[in-house]
């Protein structure tokens, strides 16, 4: 296996282990955030979330949310990805903040 294929396989394993099936919050530039179950990411870094809530804060400081089901968030609109901790982690370890961009493969060559 060549180096590029090895990097891609490592990135896929990292995403599968740290993101797929876990509750994630994806923030976009206009201030909205989408909280749902991470389903997949494609070669364009587009993220698919299932059972998703769209959350927003109004200029007056009020928050609102609505169920939007399954969504695709364009990769070029992703500002930050947070992964919620598993319940099993919190039972055995002290609570910690969510894993902001935990292990997200950021080598551009992996997505081409």
Automatic annotation (TrEMBL):
Transmembrane segments: none annotated. Residues 84-112 are annotated as: Disordered. Pfam families: LSM. SUPFAM superfamilies: Sm-like ribonucleoproteins (SSF50182). One of its GO terms (cellular component) is NatC complex. InterPro entries: LSM_dom_sf, LSMD1_Sm, Sm_dom_euk/arc, snRNP_SmB/NAA38-like. It comes from the Eukaryota. Residues 14-83 form the Sm domain. PANTHER family: N-ALPHA-ACETYLTRANSFERASE 38, NATC AUXILIARY SUBUNIT (PTHR10701:SF5), SMALL NUCLEAR RIBONUCLEOPROTEIN-ASSOCIATED PROTEIN B AND N (PTHR10701). This is Sm domain-containing protein. It comes from Kalmanozyma brasiliensis (strain GHG001).
